UniProtKB/TrEMBL annotation:
<dbReference type="Pfam" id="PF13692">
    <property type="entry name" value="Glyco_trans_1_4"/>
</dbReference>
<dbReference type="InterPro" id="IPR050194">
    <property type="entry name" value="Glycosyltransferase_grp1"/>
</dbReference>
<protein>
    <submittedName>
        <fullName>Glycosyltransferase</fullName>
    </submittedName>
</protein>
Length: 348
Protein backbone atom coordinates (compact mmCIF):
# COMPACT_ATOMS: atom_id res chain seq x y z
CA UNK A 1 0.00 0.00 0.00
CA UNK A 2 1.02 3.60 -0.37
CA UNK A 3 2.28 5.28 2.81
CA UNK A 4 -0.32 6.64 5.24
CA UNK A 5 0.50 10.25 4.39
CA UNK A 6 -0.17 9.79 0.65
CA UNK A 7 -2.67 12.48 -0.46
CA UNK A 8 -5.02 10.27 -2.53
CA UNK A 9 -8.01 9.19 -0.37
CA UNK A 10 -8.12 5.48 0.45
CA UNK A 11 -9.76 3.36 3.12
CA UNK A 12 -6.50 1.48 3.69
CA UNK A 13 -4.55 4.67 4.30
CA UNK A 14 -7.27 6.05 6.56
CA UNK A 15 -7.16 2.87 8.64
CA UNK A 16 -3.36 3.10 8.84
CA UNK A 17 -3.55 6.70 10.04
CA UNK A 18 -6.23 5.77 12.57
CA UNK A 19 -4.06 2.95 13.92
CA UNK A 20 -1.10 5.27 14.32
CA UNK A 21 -3.28 7.82 16.12
CA UNK A 22 -4.72 5.12 18.37
CA UNK A 23 -1.28 4.02 19.55
CA UNK A 24 0.04 7.59 19.81
CA UNK A 25 -2.97 8.81 21.79
CA UNK A 26 -2.41 5.98 24.26
CA UNK A 27 0.85 7.66 25.24
CA UNK A 28 3.28 5.78 23.00
CA UNK A 29 5.63 7.31 20.44
CA UNK A 30 4.91 6.11 16.89
CA UNK A 31 7.50 6.02 14.13
CA UNK A 32 6.72 5.46 10.45
CA UNK A 33 10.10 3.89 9.80
CA UNK A 34 9.87 3.12 6.07
CA UNK A 35 8.10 4.41 2.96
CA UNK A 36 9.23 1.46 0.82
CA UNK A 37 6.19 0.12 -1.05
CA UNK A 38 6.25 -3.66 -1.48
CA UNK A 39 3.39 -4.48 -3.82
CA UNK A 40 3.02 -6.73 -6.87
CA UNK A 41 -0.35 -6.24 -8.51
CA UNK A 42 0.05 -8.65 -11.43
CA UNK A 43 2.22 -11.53 -10.22
CA UNK A 44 5.68 -10.83 -11.69
CA UNK A 45 8.57 -12.98 -10.52
CA UNK A 46 11.01 -10.33 -11.72
CA UNK A 47 9.28 -7.58 -9.73
CA UNK A 48 9.05 -9.77 -6.65
CA UNK A 49 12.77 -10.50 -6.80
CA UNK A 50 13.58 -6.79 -7.18
CA UNK A 51 11.31 -5.80 -4.29
CA UNK A 52 12.78 -8.53 -2.11
CA UNK A 53 16.27 -7.15 -2.71
CA UNK A 54 15.09 -3.63 -1.86
CA UNK A 55 13.42 -4.90 1.29
CA UNK A 56 16.57 -6.70 2.42
CA UNK A 57 18.56 -3.50 2.03
CA UNK A 58 15.89 -1.54 3.91
CA UNK A 59 15.82 -4.09 6.72
CA UNK A 60 19.58 -3.85 7.05
CA UNK A 61 19.39 -0.05 7.18
CA UNK A 62 16.68 -0.06 9.83
CA UNK A 63 18.48 -2.64 11.94
CA UNK A 64 21.47 -0.31 12.09
CA UNK A 65 19.75 3.11 12.13
CA UNK A 66 16.26 2.79 13.64
CA UNK A 67 15.96 4.47 17.05
CA UNK A 68 15.39 2.27 20.10
CA UNK A 69 12.00 0.62 19.71
CA UNK A 70 9.83 -1.56 21.96
CA UNK A 71 7.39 -3.00 19.41
CA UNK A 72 7.06 -3.48 15.66
CA UNK A 73 3.54 -3.23 14.18
CA UNK A 74 2.81 -4.16 10.56
CA UNK A 75 -0.50 -3.31 8.95
CA UNK A 76 -1.85 -5.33 6.00
CA UNK A 77 0.36 -8.32 5.26
CA UNK A 78 -0.95 -10.43 2.36
CA UNK A 79 0.17 -12.26 -0.75
CA UNK A 80 0.47 -9.21 -3.02
CA UNK A 81 2.15 -7.13 -0.32
CA UNK A 82 4.03 -9.29 2.20
CA UNK A 83 5.98 -7.79 5.06
CA UNK A 84 9.54 -8.39 3.93
CA UNK A 85 11.04 -5.96 6.46
CA UNK A 86 9.40 -6.28 9.88
CA UNK A 87 10.33 -9.88 10.79
CA UNK A 88 14.02 -9.35 10.01
CA UNK A 89 14.25 -6.07 11.95
CA UNK A 90 12.25 -7.37 14.91
CA UNK A 91 14.44 -10.47 15.12
CA UNK A 92 17.66 -8.46 14.88
CA UNK A 93 16.47 -5.96 17.51
CA UNK A 94 14.85 -8.63 19.74
CA UNK A 95 11.53 -6.78 19.90
CA UNK A 96 7.97 -8.15 19.73
CA UNK A 97 6.39 -8.22 16.29
CA UNK A 98 2.62 -8.02 15.65
CA UNK A 99 0.42 -7.74 12.59
CA UNK A 100 -2.90 -6.03 11.98
CA UNK A 101 -5.14 -7.28 9.16
CA UNK A 102 -3.01 -10.13 7.92
CA UNK A 103 -4.51 -12.75 5.60
CA UNK A 104 -3.50 -16.36 4.96
CA UNK A 105 -3.87 -17.39 1.31
CA UNK A 106 -2.66 -20.97 0.95
CA UNK A 107 -4.11 -21.24 -2.55
CA UNK A 108 -1.58 -18.59 -3.63
CA UNK A 109 1.41 -20.69 -2.56
CA UNK A 110 1.55 -21.88 -6.16
CA UNK A 111 1.23 -19.69 -9.21
CA UNK A 112 2.56 -16.22 -10.08
CA UNK A 113 2.53 -14.92 -6.49
CA UNK A 114 4.03 -18.05 -4.94
CA UNK A 115 7.17 -16.37 -3.59
CA UNK A 116 5.29 -13.41 -2.12
CA UNK A 117 2.54 -15.64 -0.72
CA UNK A 118 5.13 -17.77 1.06
CA UNK A 119 6.81 -14.62 2.38
CA UNK A 120 3.47 -13.34 3.72
CA UNK A 121 2.82 -16.72 5.32
CA UNK A 122 6.29 -16.77 6.89
CA UNK A 123 5.86 -13.23 8.23
CA UNK A 124 2.53 -14.18 9.78
CA UNK A 125 4.19 -17.16 11.48
CA UNK A 126 6.66 -14.83 13.19
CA UNK A 127 4.00 -12.57 14.72
CA UNK A 128 3.36 -12.85 18.42
CA UNK A 129 -0.16 -11.61 17.76
CA UNK A 130 -2.31 -11.04 14.69
CA UNK A 131 -5.30 -8.73 14.89
CA UNK A 132 -8.19 -9.31 12.49
CA UNK A 133 -10.91 -6.84 11.53
CA UNK A 134 -13.58 -9.15 10.16
CA UNK A 135 -14.83 -12.65 10.84
CA UNK A 136 -14.05 -13.51 7.22
CA UNK A 137 -10.31 -13.29 8.02
CA UNK A 138 -10.54 -15.10 11.34
CA UNK A 139 -11.00 -18.64 10.04
CA UNK A 140 -7.75 -18.89 8.07
CA UNK A 141 -5.74 -17.12 10.79
CA UNK A 142 -6.89 -19.59 13.42
CA UNK A 143 -6.50 -22.55 11.05
CA UNK A 144 -2.86 -21.63 10.39
CA UNK A 145 -2.07 -20.24 13.85
CA UNK A 146 1.63 -20.67 14.66
CA UNK A 147 2.32 -22.02 18.15
CA UNK A 148 0.80 -19.95 20.96
CA UNK A 149 0.30 -16.95 18.69
CA UNK A 150 -2.60 -14.70 19.77
CA UNK A 151 -5.38 -14.21 17.22
CA UNK A 152 -7.30 -11.17 18.45
CA UNK A 153 -10.32 -9.26 17.17
CA UNK A 154 -9.79 -5.53 16.59
CA UNK A 155 -13.02 -4.17 15.12
CA UNK A 156 -12.49 -1.30 12.66
CA UNK A 157 -12.83 1.99 14.50
CA UNK A 158 -13.19 5.73 14.11
CA UNK A 159 -10.46 7.90 15.70
CA UNK A 160 -13.03 9.56 17.96
CA UNK A 161 -13.55 9.60 21.72
CA UNK A 162 -17.26 10.35 21.37
CA UNK A 163 -19.98 10.39 18.73
CA UNK A 164 -20.39 13.31 16.30
CA UNK A 165 -23.64 15.27 16.02
CA UNK A 166 -26.76 13.34 15.10
CA UNK A 167 -27.97 13.86 11.51
CA UNK A 168 -31.28 15.63 10.95
CA UNK A 169 -32.23 12.59 8.79
CA UNK A 170 -34.28 14.93 6.60
CA UNK A 171 -31.97 15.68 3.69
CA UNK A 172 -31.11 13.75 0.52
CA UNK A 173 -29.61 10.28 0.54
CA UNK A 174 -25.81 10.25 0.60
CA UNK A 175 -23.25 8.12 -1.21
CA UNK A 176 -19.50 8.45 -0.58
CA UNK A 177 -17.02 6.43 -2.61
CA UNK A 178 -13.96 6.83 -4.78
CA UNK A 179 -14.66 6.86 -8.51
CA UNK A 180 -12.41 4.27 -10.09
CA UNK A 181 -12.79 1.20 -12.27
CA UNK A 182 -13.41 -2.20 -10.76
CA UNK A 183 -15.32 -2.74 -7.54
CA UNK A 184 -16.13 0.94 -6.94
CA UNK A 185 -17.60 1.32 -10.41
CA UNK A 186 -19.56 -1.90 -9.85
CA UNK A 187 -21.11 -0.39 -6.71
CA UNK A 188 -22.06 2.74 -8.63
CA UNK A 189 -23.65 0.59 -11.34
CA UNK A 190 -25.79 -1.13 -8.70
CA UNK A 191 -26.77 2.28 -7.34
CA UNK A 192 -27.91 3.40 -10.80
CA UNK A 193 -30.01 0.26 -11.17
CA UNK A 194 -31.40 0.72 -7.67
CA UNK A 195 -32.38 4.34 -8.23
CA UNK A 196 -34.28 3.37 -11.39
CA UNK A 197 -36.53 1.25 -9.17
CA UNK A 198 -37.28 3.94 -6.58
CA UNK A 199 -40.45 6.00 -6.69
CA UNK A 200 -41.33 9.25 -4.99
CA UNK A 201 -39.42 12.49 -4.57
CA UNK A 202 -35.98 11.18 -3.66
CA UNK A 203 -32.62 12.95 -4.06
CA UNK A 204 -29.04 11.69 -3.83
CA UNK A 205 -25.78 13.50 -3.09
CA UNK A 206 -22.53 11.80 -4.10
CA UNK A 207 -19.20 12.60 -2.45
CA UNK A 208 -16.15 11.35 -4.33
CA UNK A 209 -14.03 11.79 -7.42
CA UNK A 210 -11.59 9.84 -9.54
CA UNK A 211 -10.79 8.61 -13.05
CA UNK A 212 -14.12 6.78 -13.46
CA UNK A 213 -16.20 9.89 -12.80
CA UNK A 214 -17.22 10.37 -16.48
CA UNK A 215 -18.50 6.77 -16.60
CA UNK A 216 -20.37 7.22 -13.33
CA UNK A 217 -21.89 10.50 -14.45
CA UNK A 218 -23.07 8.75 -17.59
CA UNK A 219 -24.65 5.96 -15.52
CA UNK A 220 -26.57 8.48 -13.45
CA UNK A 221 -27.36 11.02 -16.17
CA UNK A 222 -30.96 9.71 -16.62
CA UNK A 223 -31.84 10.97 -13.13
CA UNK A 224 -31.00 14.59 -13.97
CA UNK A 225 -31.24 17.08 -11.07
CA UNK A 226 -32.11 14.37 -8.55
CA UNK A 227 -28.36 13.66 -8.42
CA UNK A 228 -25.83 16.13 -7.00
CA UNK A 229 -22.12 15.44 -7.48
CA UNK A 230 -20.22 17.02 -4.58
CA UNK A 231 -16.72 16.02 -5.70
CA UNK A 232 -13.94 15.03 -3.31
CA UNK A 233 -14.76 16.51 0.10
CA UNK A 234 -12.55 17.45 2.99
CA UNK A 235 -13.32 16.13 6.45
CA UNK A 236 -15.42 19.14 7.51
CA UNK A 237 -17.41 19.12 4.28
CA UNK A 238 -18.08 15.40 4.49
CA UNK A 239 -19.18 15.77 8.11
CA UNK A 240 -21.65 18.44 7.00
CA UNK A 241 -23.01 16.07 4.33
CA UNK A 242 -23.50 13.29 6.90
CA UNK A 243 -25.20 15.74 9.26
CA UNK A 244 -28.17 16.35 6.96
CA UNK A 245 -28.53 13.09 5.00
CA UNK A 246 -31.59 10.87 5.37
CA UNK A 247 -29.64 7.62 4.81
CA UNK A 248 -26.39 6.27 3.42
CA UNK A 249 -26.52 4.28 0.18
CA UNK A 250 -23.56 2.09 -0.81
CA UNK A 251 -23.82 -1.59 -1.94
CA UNK A 252 -20.25 -2.42 -0.89
CA UNK A 253 -18.98 -4.60 -3.73
CA UNK A 254 -15.88 -6.39 -2.39
CA UNK A 255 -15.32 -3.82 0.36
CA UNK A 256 -12.83 -5.23 2.83
CA UNK A 257 -14.32 -3.09 5.60
CA UNK A 258 -15.75 0.23 4.43
CA UNK A 259 -14.89 3.04 6.85
CA UNK A 260 -17.67 5.18 5.39
CA UNK A 261 -20.20 2.82 6.96
CA UNK A 262 -18.78 3.57 10.40
CA UNK A 263 -18.81 7.31 9.74
CA UNK A 264 -22.38 7.27 8.48
CA UNK A 265 -23.69 5.23 11.40
CA UNK A 266 -21.83 7.42 13.91
CA UNK A 267 -24.00 10.28 12.63
CA UNK A 268 -27.06 8.07 12.96
CA UNK A 269 -27.60 7.42 9.28
CA UNK A 270 -29.47 4.24 8.41
CA UNK A 271 -27.41 2.30 5.87
CA UNK A 272 -28.77 0.76 2.68
CA UNK A 273 -26.17 -1.84 1.74
CA UNK A 274 -25.97 -5.44 0.63
CA UNK A 275 -25.18 -8.32 2.98
CA UNK A 276 -21.57 -8.88 1.94
CA UNK A 277 -18.58 -10.36 3.82
CA UNK A 278 -16.61 -7.64 5.56
CA UNK A 279 -19.39 -5.10 5.13
CA UNK A 280 -21.74 -6.91 7.50
CA UNK A 281 -19.07 -6.82 10.23
CA UNK A 282 -19.36 -3.03 10.50
CA UNK A 283 -23.12 -2.65 10.02
CA UNK A 284 -25.78 -2.51 12.71
CA UNK A 285 -27.19 -6.06 12.77
CA UNK A 286 -30.24 -6.19 10.50
CA UNK A 287 -31.63 -8.17 7.56
CA UNK A 288 -29.81 -6.54 4.64
CA UNK A 289 -30.59 -7.67 1.08
CA UNK A 290 -28.32 -10.36 -0.33
CA UNK A 291 -26.23 -9.55 -3.41
CA UNK A 292 -28.22 -12.24 -5.24
CA UNK A 293 -31.33 -10.12 -4.80
CA UNK A 294 -29.71 -7.50 -7.00
CA UNK A 295 -30.85 -3.93 -7.35
CA UNK A 296 -34.46 -4.88 -6.69
CA UNK A 297 -33.63 -6.10 -3.18
CA UNK A 298 -31.58 -2.99 -2.42
CA UNK A 299 -34.31 -0.74 -3.82
CA UNK A 300 -36.96 -2.37 -1.61
CA UNK A 301 -34.76 -1.96 1.46
CA UNK A 302 -34.03 1.68 0.57
CA UNK A 303 -37.68 2.47 -0.13
CA UNK A 304 -38.73 1.27 3.31
CA UNK A 305 -36.26 3.63 4.94
CA UNK A 306 -37.20 6.58 2.74
CA UNK A 307 -40.91 6.16 3.39
CA UNK A 308 -40.73 5.76 7.16
CA UNK A 309 -39.18 8.62 9.16
CA UNK A 310 -39.96 6.84 12.45
CA UNK A 311 -37.97 3.82 11.25
CA UNK A 312 -35.05 6.07 10.33
CA UNK A 313 -35.12 7.68 13.77
CA UNK A 314 -35.22 4.35 15.55
CA UNK A 315 -32.43 2.96 13.37
CA UNK A 316 -30.35 6.08 14.05
CA UNK A 317 -30.50 5.49 17.81
CA UNK A 318 -29.45 1.85 17.49
CA UNK A 319 -26.72 2.64 14.94
CA UNK A 320 -25.12 5.25 17.18
CA UNK A 321 -25.14 2.91 20.17
CA UNK A 322 -23.60 0.20 17.98
CA UNK A 323 -20.74 2.51 16.98
CA UNK A 324 -20.26 3.87 20.51
CA UNK A 325 -19.94 0.41 22.04
CA UNK A 326 -17.86 -1.26 19.33
CA UNK A 327 -16.17 1.11 16.91
CA UNK A 328 -14.69 4.16 18.65
CA UNK A 329 -11.07 4.69 19.72
CA UNK A 330 -11.38 3.90 23.47
CA UNK A 331 -12.72 0.40 22.89
CA UNK A 332 -10.11 -0.25 20.17
CA UNK A 333 -7.26 0.96 22.38
CA UNK A 334 -8.27 -1.41 25.17
CA UNK A 335 -8.39 -4.35 22.80
CA UNK A 336 -4.98 -3.49 21.29
CA UNK A 337 -3.08 -3.02 24.54
CA UNK A 338 -4.70 -5.97 26.30
CA UNK A 339 -3.11 -8.18 23.65
CA UNK A 340 0.19 -6.36 23.08
CA UNK A 341 1.32 -5.48 26.61
CA UNK A 342 1.88 -9.13 27.65
CA UNK A 343 4.16 -9.55 24.63
CA UNK A 344 6.13 -6.46 25.57
CA UNK A 345 6.26 -7.52 29.21
CA UNK A 346 7.81 -10.83 28.22
CA UNK A 347 10.97 -8.94 27.21
CA UNK A 348 11.65 -7.85 30.78
Amino acid sequence: MKPPHHPVPSGDREIARNLMSLIRNSGAEVQLVSDLRIYDKHGSEELQAALTAQAQAEASRLTNEMPETDLWVTYHNYYKAPDLIGPAVARARSIPYVQIESTRATKRLSGPWAEFAQAAHDAANVAGAIFYFTQQDRFALERDRCGDQAIAHLPPFLPLEELPALSSLQGPMLTAGMMRAGDKLASYAIIADTLARLSGDWRLEIAGDGPARPAIEALLAPFGPKISFLGQLGRAELTAAYAKASLFLWPGVNEAVGMVYLEAQAHGLPVAAQNRPGVKDVLLPATYPAPEEGAQGLASFTSQLLANSALRTETARHARNFILNNHLAPAAARRFWDTVLPLMGSRA
